[in-house]
Amino acid sequence: MAIGFNRLKRNAFAPMAVLAALLSGCMSLSGERRTVSAPVVTSGPDSTVFAEQTRLVATFGGEYAAPAPLIDLVREIVAKIVAASDDPAVRYRVTVLNSPSINAFALPTGDLYVTRGLLALANDTSELAAVLAHEVGHVTAKHASQRAEFERQATTAMPDSISGPNGATSRFLLASFSRGQELEADEVGIRTIAKAGYDPYGAARFLASLARQTTFVGEIRPSARYSFLSSHPSTPQRLAAALETARANVGATSIEADRARYLTALSGIAYGDDPFGGVVRGRRFLHARLDFMMLAPEGFALENSPQAVIGVTGNGQEALRLDTVRLGGAGPEAALAGGWIDGATNSEITPFSINGLSGATATSKGPEWTFRLAAIQKGEDIFRIIFAAREMTPVLDRTFLASIGSFRTLTSDEKLGLRPQRLETVAAGGDDTAMTLLTKSDRADNALDRFLVLNGLDRPKIRAGELYKLILSE
Known about the structure:
- The protein has about 475 residues and is α+β, with helices and mostly antiparallel strands.
- It is built from 15 helices and 18 strands.
């Protein structure tokens, strides 16, 4: 979570818009900066594109300094993919993003982005090659320009397509168009990696891991059961298509699954949330640098970003946002008096004190949402908390106030538990089982299920001599 945010528009809390902003990208879901590069982009982006790229990278936690062996491997994979692609003259630049989400996306400029969360989920070079080739396929097929033209035509034909009576039809057409692009990029990517000497079944293996991850997250956080992007094909549909394409592209070329090499290069990569920017632990949000904790109400699924912490309920009827600002000595009441939501009217501001900190609260009424606002001062920082509800009731408002009242500084045990985590790979011994390997890793809830997901396993069957990922604290 970073300092600062802009004045909110009145519909800024529409839950689907919130989720779309957080999970945008091709596959969904700050430390030292480094960019992994294939050949340099032939022509630099103009200032507008550069500003958008800068904003996009910041949204995903900035660039990440991946382990040097992994950087070299990514560079090698991209070079092979480009040489085997439909347009080998295009030059690409790959940026690893400091985000635990599972995400990859491409820009028409040849900029490819992949999160460290996606790198952590992959289990061999062919799986990563399939992801990167999928993104290259978007670029060579000019999907971005096709999408822009389709949206322009849809808007011209149905000027009220978003808010008017034709909205459902327009959104369905746009979503279908995007799903078709995704399946086409899958097919192009699989053909490309087969030509480059990678295992064409790598795409199916990665999609299977993605399905396991989705199921795992849904089981431990039921309110977070949403698709990575509603415009993308369902994972079973993509998996079936990927298997069919792979079968059609197994040729005489060498097949390189290369699990050991990939996992060796991956060892040491950061895992999970970056404690420097705060971490989500169930309904709790904890921030080591800013030294605070807050507990969200029951039913809220929390997502952290560099801009703010966002929470949304499963039914989409309530949401929250938490961020910080510095107002040059102004206190909580002055912070609230500035007005945070366009088109909404504030109630009288009420000061309060919680856990040794001063704060102020008010309600705000807009045309569609009612808000419970709170400002809490801690040192030079003002923490701004906004709860929104479609239908605010006294019981719901008391729930929001209780959550605001949970705001406090961290205990020493909580600080100790916020150490950064990383993935390390270990070779299984002859007597090892999944459970004996887990004794070497950090203790965590659902540890066995998480181990299976990370290692692409359907069941806890361990093979002696093979490498497996474990989660360790630094």
